[in-house]
């Protein structure tokens, strides 16, 4: 073993480097950048890990290092030291938590940004050793820190992206370090709306961790994996933390792609290290979040890395099942490991993972229904001072369609901010309690997760804004609002709500306007689909778009899917002579979604068209389109309502007679009546741009130049369609 002597450095040396004579590096078979262990010749149990760097000026037996390295190894100038090349070991532990202490009081405050910066520096070093000293420049200041503690308690550990870094001031007590970073323990009582799923997870996990011998007694192997799948924000990670807390198990979290490394074999090694630490600290739970990004299907994996990761995880999970050659040996504490996986794309996982012995059970954590939302809100509001009654909470839960647990937590947090802002403007600070108005204001600004990709800013149109058409309004209310407000009546009568409604009639007769009012008044999630936008030039993409619309509608139920100009999507099959067109395939997909194997629950399809004759007959049958409503030109009373609503928004003279306008617009559509009012206003402005009001003469002039778009032939066309289809006139 070669002995060197320490030399101080007057030059600026990289914090992690030591300068070694080039001849000595060749003698020790060291390459530039190799890691070396530096030990005191008299106390070889203490070491410092650094990077070897060649020097052309040093004497053969001299090694040059900076002050931080000398302080870490307690080396003095001229002390004899030994150097050896560091060889990575498979048994090196992964650091779960690293505690750093400033050796002098810094002038800046400790915050999350500093902690993240320190974490990044340590990850760049890859290895962290207990007692090491590092110089860090932050906000223009150079400060020195010492590695005070590594968890688990080992001399050297491997850093990972999941390693927790804690920074302490010189006078801070180390006993308090976990309280700075660790949140309040989560129990099952802190989770609302997931009682069924929690019981399923407990059934699988708790006995496996706490009493695995019970399974062996009955000749069974303990379950080793549970896959939680569902949309983001539904509580998958929360359940994993609660299970870990209640079982007092050690938790290791793998956040999907965070462990991916660009170096060959390092990703697999990180996985092996995590399972090794889990064995050492059993009972353990390994929680893999976004597991689909880590373990996609091997035949669809973009690179060889994903395939190697999947194979490694399969091997490790089989190793959890039995780490000895004799599988009949009783399970020991070292094998008390359960792997929890979470994903919102379960079908993207490799099939080999989804078999018994790996992920033994798959539990859906879905979007909560009304009762689950009530439970979640009740749990959340226990922690917030509020003035809400039970009836208020019931109301919020019933109208929060599509909101997941994370959304409801965001609503409560935002409501608290509204309360703080409101009270900040007043002198009294006593009554800081969340009100129902705060909750409503918060909900208006927070969209449900299930609808964020397709949420529309629907114009606020109410039934009162639509003149006439009372029969159509009543039928729409029966179909959409009654099932939500009176579900027990449908159950009592043994019937189901209508699945689909078709509004047909001449252009301009308020079909689309009624859909807007329906979206506003019903309170359901509203998804609008413009017929032609679903078509794609790629084979299969159009059908996929239809499936995606209905998948989101089911996830956000109760919901309304509105197809405007549905005739563009549902032309009678074979009308182009080939029978294999994109439109035919889209229609088949639509028929399957509306009344196929997978039921359409709490999703109502509303469609509008002015060409009902070209729609495929299979769509118009009961069970798909249950109600076909003719929206014709408004009658006298309806036209009078339309003029009354429109003129109320305008500045009109007293000589304008609404009854006269209603009589003279016989056969006009609602859109034409509105256009007539706009034309009269323009005539008034042409006469005098500063005119005070619109006179009767302006309306008469507009009537004189007005051309009706709805012809008798058009009305006869719809009458003939009603006769052929056997539909009763509205």
From TrEMBL:
<dbReference type="GO" id="GO:0016887">
    <property type="term" value="F:ATP hydrolysis activity"/>
</dbReference>
<dbReference type="InterPro" id="IPR027417">
    <property type="entry name" value="P-loop_NTPase"/>
</dbReference>
<dbReference type="GO" id="GO:0005524">
    <property type="term" value="F:ATP binding"/>
</dbReference>
<dbReference type="InterPro" id="IPR003959">
    <property type="entry name" value="ATPase_AAA_core"/>
</dbReference>
<feature type="domain" description="AAA+ ATPase">
    <location>
        <begin position="222"/>
        <end position="369"/>
    </location>
</feature>
<dbReference type="InterPro" id="IPR041569">
    <property type="entry name" value="AAA_lid_3"/>
</dbReference>
<keyword id="KW-0547">Nucleotide-binding</keyword>
<dbReference type="GO" id="GO:0005737">
    <property type="term" value="C:cytoplasm"/>
</dbReference>
<keyword id="KW-0067">ATP-binding</keyword>
<dbReference type="Pfam" id="PF17862">
    <property type="entry name" value="AAA_lid_3"/>
</dbReference>
<protein>
    <submittedName>
        <fullName>Spermatogenesis-associated protein 5 isoform 2</fullName>
    </submittedName>
</protein>
<keyword id="KW-0677">Repeat</keyword>
<dbReference type="Pfam" id="PF00004">
    <property type="entry name" value="AAA"/>
</dbReference>
<feature type="domain" description="AAA+ ATPase">
    <location>
        <begin position="497"/>
        <end position="635"/>
    </location>
</feature>
<dbReference type="InterPro" id="IPR003593">
    <property type="entry name" value="AAA+_ATPase"/>
</dbReference>
<dbReference type="InterPro" id="IPR050168">
    <property type="entry name" value="AAA_ATPase_domain"/>
</dbReference>
<dbReference type="InterPro" id="IPR003960">
    <property type="entry name" value="ATPase_AAA_CS"/>
</dbReference>
């Amino acid at each position: 073993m070669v002995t060197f002597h320490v030399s101080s450095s007057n030059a600026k040396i990289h914090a992690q480097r030591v300068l070694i004579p080039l001849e000595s590096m060749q003698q020790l078979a060291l390459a530039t950048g190799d890691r070396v262990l530096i030990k005191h010749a008299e106390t070889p149990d203490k070491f410092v890990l650094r990077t070897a760097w060649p020097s052309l000026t040093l004497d053969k037996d001299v090694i040059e290092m900076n002050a931080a390295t000398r302080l870490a190894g307690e080396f003095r100038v001229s002390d004899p030291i030994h150097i050896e090349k560091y060889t990575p070991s498979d048994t090196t532990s992964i650091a779960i938590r690293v505690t750093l202490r400033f050796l002098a009081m810094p002038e800046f405050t400790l915050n999350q940004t500093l902690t993240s910066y320190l974490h990044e520096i340590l990850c760049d070093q890859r290895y962290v050793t207990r007692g090491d000293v590092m110089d860090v420049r932050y906000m223009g200041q150079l400060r020195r820190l010492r590695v005070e503690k590594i968890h688990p308690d080992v001399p050297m550990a491997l850093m990972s992206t999941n390693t927790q870094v804690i920074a302490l001031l010189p006078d801070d007590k180390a006993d308090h370090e976990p309280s700075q970073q660790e949140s309040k323990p989560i129990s099952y009582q802190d989770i609302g709306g997931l009682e069924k799923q929690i019981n399923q997870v407990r059934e699988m996990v708790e006995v496996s961790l706490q009493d695995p011998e019970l399974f062996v007694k009955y000749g069974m192997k303990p379950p080793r994996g549970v896959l939680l799948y569902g949309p983001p924000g539904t509580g998958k990670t929360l359940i994993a933390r609660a299970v870990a807390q209640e079982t007092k198990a050690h938790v290791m979290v793998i956040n999907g792609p965070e462990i991916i490394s660009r170096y060959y074999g390092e990703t697999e090694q990180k996985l092996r290290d995590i399972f090794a630490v889990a064995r050492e600290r059993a009972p353990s739970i390994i929680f893999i979040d976004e597991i689909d990004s880590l373990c996609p299907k091997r035949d669809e994996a973009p690179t060889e890395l994903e395939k190697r990761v999947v194979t490694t995880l399969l091997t490790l999970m089989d190793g959890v099942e039995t780490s000895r050659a004799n599988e009949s040996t009783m399970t020991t504490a070292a094998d008390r490991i359960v792997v929890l996986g979470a994903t919102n794309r379960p079908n993207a996982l490799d099939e080999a993972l989804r078999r018994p012995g790996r992920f033994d059970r798959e539990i859906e954590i879905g979007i909560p229904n009304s009762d689950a939302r009530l439970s979640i809100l009740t749990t959340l509001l226990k922690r917030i001072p509020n003035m809400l009654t039970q009836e208020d909470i019931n109301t919020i839960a019933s109208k929060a369609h599509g909101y997941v647990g994370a959304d409801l937590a965001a609503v409560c947090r935002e409501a608290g901010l509204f309360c703080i802002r409101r009270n900040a403007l007043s002198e009294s600070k006593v009554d800081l309690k969340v009100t129902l108005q705060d909750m409503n204001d918060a909900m208006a600004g927070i969209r449900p997760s299930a609808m964020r990709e397709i949420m529309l800013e629907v114009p606020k149109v109410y039934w009162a804004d639509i003149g006439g058409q009372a029969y159509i309004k009543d039928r729409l209310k029966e179909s959409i609002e009654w099932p939500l407000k009176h579900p027990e009546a449908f159950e009592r009568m043994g019937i189901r709500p209508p699945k689909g409604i078709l509004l047909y009639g001449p252009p301009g007769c308020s079909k689309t306007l009624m859909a807007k009012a329906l979206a506003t008044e019903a309170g359901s999630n509203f998804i609008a689909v413009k017929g032609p936008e679903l078509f794609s030039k790629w084979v299969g993409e159009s059908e996929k778009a239809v499936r995606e619309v209905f998948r989101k509608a089911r996830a956000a139920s109760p919901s309304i899917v509105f197809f405007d100009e549905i005739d563009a999507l549902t032309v009678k099959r074979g009308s182009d002579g080939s029978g294999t067109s994109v439109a035919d395939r889209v229609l088949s997909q639509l028929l399957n979604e509306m009344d196929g194997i997978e039921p359409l629950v709490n999703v109502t399809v509303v469609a509008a068209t002015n060409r009902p004759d070209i729609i495929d007959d299979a769509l118009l049958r009961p069970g798909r389109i249950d109600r076909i409503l003719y929206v014709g030109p408004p009658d006298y009373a309806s036209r009078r309502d339309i003029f009354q609503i429109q003129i109320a928004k305008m500045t009109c003279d007293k000589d304008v007679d609404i009854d006269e306008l209603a009589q003279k617009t016989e056969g006009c559509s609602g859109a034409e009546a509105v256009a007539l009012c706009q034309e009269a206003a323009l005539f008034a402005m042409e006469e005098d741009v500063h005119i005070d009001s619109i006179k009767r003469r302006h309306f008469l002039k507009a009537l004189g130049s007005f051309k009706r778009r709805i012809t008798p032939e058009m009305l006869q066309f719809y009458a003939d369609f009603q006769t052929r289809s056997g539909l009763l006139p509205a």
